[in-house]
Each structure stands twice: as C-alpha cells, then as structure tokens.
Amino acid sequence: xxxxxxxxxxxxxxxxxxxxxxxxxxxxxxxxxxxxxxxxxxxxxxxxxxxxxxxxxxxxxxxxxxxxxxxxxxxxxxxxxxxxxxxxxxxxxxxxxxxxxxxxxxxxxxxxxxxxxxxxxxxxxxxxxxxxxxxxxxxxxxxxxxxxxxxxxxxxxxxxxxxxxxxxxxxxxxxxxxxxxxxxxxxxxxxxxxxxxxxxxxxxxxxxxxxxxxxxxxxxxxxxxxxxxxxxxxxxxxxxxxxxxxxxxxxxxxxxxxxxxxxxxxxxxxxxxxxxxxxxxxxxxxxxxxxxxxxxxxxxxxxxxxxxxxxxx
Amino acid sequence: xxxxxxxxxxxxxxxxxxxxxxxxxxxxxxxxxxxxxxxxxxxxxxxxxxxxxxxxxxxxxxxxxxxxxxxxxxxxxxxxxxxxxxxxxxxxxxxxxxxxxxxxxxxxxxxxxxxxxxxxxxxxxxxxxxxxxxxxxxxxxxxxxxxxxxxxxxxxxxxxxxxxxxxxxxxxxxxxxxxxxxxxxxxxxxxxxxxxxxxxxxxxxxxxxxxxxxxxxxxxxxxxxxxxxxxxxxxxxxxxxxxxxxxxxxxxxxxxxxxxxxxxxxxxxxxxxxxxxxxxxxxxxxxxxxxxxxxxxxxxxxxxxxxxxxxxxxxxxxxxxxxxxxxxxxxxxxxxxxxxxxxxxxxxxxx
Lengths: 313, 351
Prior knowledge:
Chain A is mainly beta. Chain A has helices at residues 21-31, 178-189, and strands at residues 7-18, 35-39, 45-46, 63-66, 69-78, 91-98, 105-109, 122-127, 138-143, 164-175, 193-197, 204-205, 221-225, 229-237, 250-257, 264-268, 281-286, 293-298. In chain B, the strands form two sheets. A ten-stranded mixed beta sheet of chain B has the order 3-2-4-7-1-8-12-11-9-10. Chain B has a two-stranded antiparallel ribbon with strand order 5-6.
C-alpha cells in the first residue's frame, strides 16, 4: 500500500452579510461609540440587541442606549489566544451585563492575570481606534472602578447607517484523501491510471473512492486502465475561468478509459474544438511535472463504435 | 403521550474512535460500520425503507462529503434518503418521524465526523451568531469554560467534582473497546480556566449507525428491541448572554415531552462533552445517584463530533438489547453550552 498522502488545505471566504434594522443601528452605534440595546415586549433591555423577541418572536424595534460600563457575569481565562480572537496576549473571555441592560454581551477582558478577574467585577468598553461598524469596534473590555457611565439617550438614528458587514473566515486543514484516493494519486505520479474493481458488480471505478456506489461494498482489487480512452460526451467551454491559463473555447469531456466501468472528466486538446466528437479516441498528455494528465489528445485511431461506450454516457 | 406507532432501535454499530484516521476517507471509515449494523439484523441495504444521515463538511473541510459517504450505502437504484447538518441523533429523529407516518417500516441512520484534518475548536466557532459572536472567534472550550465558571460561582459544582466526573467517565470506558480514552487520564493543566484538559472531550474521528424498525418488523429483527417510548428536542436562544448557563430548560422540556419523568430510568447516556455539562444535565433530568450515568464512558471518552449524540442513543439501546437495562434515557446535544437538546426514552419488553 502506498504512503497515505496529506496536503495543507485552506478554506477562506469573506462572508458579506446584510443587516436587519436593529443590527444596523447597534453596529452603527459601535462605530460612533454608542452602545444600544433593544426593549422586549416584557420591558427587558437586550444587549446585544436582536430583531425579534426571544420569547414571543414579535418584531422589536424600540432601541435604547445603555452605558459602556458594566458587570462581569461569568468569565474564563484564556492563556493561549488563538488566531482571530480580540487580543493577542492572555485575556479573559467575559459575559458583561452593561449598565442599563438585562442580558450580557460576550467579549474579551484585558486583565493582567486570572487572579485579577472575578464574577461581579466592574469593567468598561475600550474602543478600537479605527471603527467600521462591527462587533470588533469594541477592542475589548478593561477593569474600571468608577461610577456607572450615564448614557446620553440616543435613539439609534445615525447619519450613514451601516447596512452590512464583511466577515472574513479562514479555516486551515491538513487533508488526507484516504486509502483509495491516495493510491490513485500515487499512480498518476508514475503515469499510471489506477482503478478499483467492485467485488460484487465487477465494475472498475476510476478514480476509486474506496466503495462501489451501486453495491455499497468496499473496492480493493486494483486495476490499471487506459492509457487510451473514448470521448463519451463533451461540452464546449466559452467562459474563461479565473486564474486558469487556458484559451477559450475549449472542450471538456467525459472520457471512458479502456478497461474502466465509468467515465472520468478531462480537457481535450490537440484538435480544433469544433472537431471533437463522441467516440473520438484520445490519450493523456502529462503535465510538465508528470504528476497528472494535463489534457487528452486524439490518438489518430478510428472512432469507437457507439455500442462500445453507450453504457458510460 | 405514547407514539402512534411502536418503533424501536433494533441494531447499533460504531467504529473505534481514534485521534487520527489519515488512511481512511470518510466513506472508508463509515463502510465497515454500515456493514456491521446491517449484519446484526440480516438486512441488506436494499431492504431498508428510509436512510438518514448526519454530518458536516466543515469538520474535514471537504465539500459535499455526505454525498460521497452515500457511496457506502449503495444508493442505486435511487433510495429514499435524507441528510441533516446535525448530529446523527437528529437524523434518527427524522427517521423516527418517517416511520411514524407509515411510509417505511425500517430505517438506517448513520453519522460520522472526521475532526482530525482541522482545528475543531476553531471550526466550531463557525456555528455561532455571524454578526456579534463569530467575528471574535470564541472557541468551543472557551464557551464551555464560561458555563463552568458560572456553575462554580453559583455553587453548583467545584473543580474537584468536575475531576471526579472525568475520572468516572474514563474508568467506565475501560470496558468499551471503541472508546478513545480508556482508563485513567491525567486531569492536566488548565486549557481555558476553569476547565482542565481532563474536563474536555478527546478530539477524534469516528462513525456510528443505528437501525430502526416498527412493530412486528422490530420483533423479527431483534430479540429484545429498544422501544422508543418518547423522543423530543428543544432549543434555546442563540445569544449566550440571554441564557442562564447553569440550567438547561430545553433538556427539561424535551425530557418531559419524551415521558422521561413518568417513571424512573435505570440508565442514562448523556451527551456532555465537558464535565461541567454533566452537572447541568443531571439537574435538568433529575437523575438520582441510583441511575447509571454513561456506562460507555460518554463523550468524555470518545467524542466524534456529529456522531457522539447518536452513539448515546445506540449505547442506551444496546444495553436494552443485552438485557442490562429495562428503561434508559438517551440525550444528545448540539451547539455551544448545551444550546439544543434531544431526549429519548428507550424500553425493553418485560422479561
């Protein structure tokens, strides 16, 4: 069995999200150093505010300013901050009930150590120097022993309301494709195309993922297929993909390699796009580093008879 | 209220849960479990009336992994099938509902999670409120630690009691060959204070599967079916600061609706990934000292995310099958700090 392959995989998106009216007012408020809550039907003030009453599900829109000072309701000491968290030095995660609010907000507290943090301690908002209308406009909380700040009674109406946020998200993986797919990729590096035969229906899957999707049993018997094959069906691509250095139009095809029980995908080159046809016989042209077929080109053989590939369309 | 149709868990299987499984793709990990659960009943994949699975692509970072996992079922000709982006316990709930309608008499439920390729503490931040919480990247241990601190401050527990829960769980797992942590494990340093490494579940890969059957079909397939006398799930507000983290009203309500309080249970399989969460669940479920809690070792011994809840139902059912329990409670959770909870009550016929 070949060595199991592994490779880093980064999944990264900037999520663009639109805001409801309450979220918009709250995040715009943070930009302007004003903290807003929303009044529920039973008269409680929720901070952070939500669009709908968590008990009655009624739409709630009654915004009320609360103080940037408050009380820690619970905390957890984080001695090893992780990527993306509010502070890069050890800090406490805290739930803070701001003065004037009935519920607590999650954020970070900048404190010298766990011995200086306790439930019930007084804290205040430390504003980020640059603010855009996001929860990170609060840089963190800091210990505070002064009186409760007096809110100015803002109604949540601002110039130039924030209507959306862009939240970048990144997750890092070390991906392993498992046994069957590792064997397939390792085979390609030797310019061999390896499939696996289903012990039940005898079909050869290329590339194999380790199980026959028809019979639901493990495939294990390795079978070398190709290198030549037949175009079973194809399409003509007219739109240039980002970061792809291939001139359009080009042909992308299903190719049934000789000996395979189903077709795989590949680009067809070495022939004008409008001359590609079902039944065309092709062979792989390996990439410069020789690790995978860059595309397939005509072999010059006569076209395959439809009867030989009609089950693999 | 008794369900309108008698439906039972008739078979359960699970993989060995391990820190890594590089040599296996998700379907390669799942396939032996599917075969084992089918073998226990003598059913073939084609005999199953409905198939439902639970998983999430975020764990391994592989898009549409659940469609590839279907390769392991043999989904051709097309089968009646569904998927939830939740723990398999919720897939089981959907399958139970399907059987209640009478559309099917048997169901295959499976779930799997491969946490090893990614950093699961960070991955789980992506399930949080994307406006106010996720941009701060509070990891799963940090959120559980906030709940643990709230419990300590309220006098509901203390660090020594939490250590006892950890030790008892791993001691119970010594007889569970599938568990990842078996026997004594050092309680370790603080990971996010007040939680120590020993208070946290192991990170690992694994899969599980269950077969449900209705009425006489269940009696044919299993000597002592684990009848689902009630099952219900409830959710709490998503904002952590709105909730009382020392209590779990959603668990209590789900248990009430599942009939858990009608008569005492002898066994409870609780899905409490963190020691402090067992304290909350014991209170919400009113479990006395006479109830065997997590004889399998629970999620503190093996926590394949997306499967650990289904495993609780499977473990509880397996004890009924073996005659080691007559009435068992199974619980599954989802989200931070026990946000959403499912409770099932399983019973064996009188012996």
